[in-house]
């Protein structure tokens, strides 16, 4: 006789679904950030040399200013906060064109769907 398949209780199945969704959102966020980083690097903007995380407060301010296109490189460099300000060289050129809206939205949805999911 064939033994029946194990079907976990509903609570465990729901937890597995939440975990899968959270992992999917995190992967999507990473892909989007990597795409933006690649476009920035292709535009010869080396924010990564100055900022450890391009999507930190300073990085987001700089990316938004780049997208706006109305500030000089010196003005954009002045947007640096705290420790990033010490790392920026005197004359640093910038040019960019990717959208930075999407990655900022993904972590919030990842956190919202991970309520009840242990990390």
Question: Please, could you describe this protein's structure?
Answer:
61% of the residues lie in helices and 0% in strands. The chain has one domain (11-97). Residues 91-101 have low confidence and may be disordered. It is built from six helices and no strands. It is elongated, with a radius of gyration of 20 Å. It starts with 9 loop residues before the first helix and ends in a 6-residue tail after the last helix. Helix 1 packs antiparallel against helix 6 (101-113). By secondary structure, the chain is mainly alpha-helical.
How much of the sequence is in beta strands? under 5%
Helix content: 55-70%
Please count the helical segments.
6
- Global morphology: elongated
Indicate the topology.
Blueprint: H1 10-42, H2 47-50, H3 57-68, H4 73-77, H5 82-87, H6 101-113
Helix pairs in contact: 1-6
